[in-house]
Amino acid sequence: MTRHGVQLLPGYEVRPLAAGDAAALAQAYVRNREHLAPWEPPRAVEFFTEAGQLADAEGKLAAAAAGQQDPWIIWRAGEVVGRVNLSNIARGAFQSASLGYWVDHRHTGRGVASAAVGFAVQRATEMGLHRLEAGTLADNQPSRAVLRRCGFTEYGRAAQYLFIAGAWQDHVLFQRILHTRDAL
Known about the structure:
29% of the residues lie in helices and 36% in strands. It is α+β, with helices and mostly antiparallel strands. Strands 1-2-3-4-5-6-8-7 form an eight-stranded mixed β-sheet, with helices on both faces. Strand 4 (79-90) and strand 5 form a beta hairpin. Helix 1 (22-31) packs across helix 3. The protein is globular. The two termini are 24 Å apart.
């Protein structure tokens, strides 16, 4: 993975995750703790520290080296303002990945999430994947709108899908097919 960045929007850049991003990630997670709490699993206090982010980054980088993830960080003016990740990358007949993303509370409503999802679709296509999937909480209308805007279609509902904000939560499932039926 190279360290070069890609412009998402004027002033916003996405770069591959690096272990050296731990301090900036910790600051971003502290700044967005309340904003992200309704959409994420409960986090231990350590998660919000530089050491916690270093451990998390090292795990993601090991998974990336094994071809299981593609983690990226969104930057603006020298600070982390979001993330976009392809995870659960499966090859073989499946050729699929799960999409995850978040944007700093101070930068929502500016098209950053849509640009990040568009970037992830491009990355997945370049990686030869056939399908991307994403799940949102049923009441997360902004995220559902982002996915629809980026060409994802709703295909179902998963009861008690993930442990989010301290409870097993239902999710609306989306997918985007990236290639024709006969291409591999």
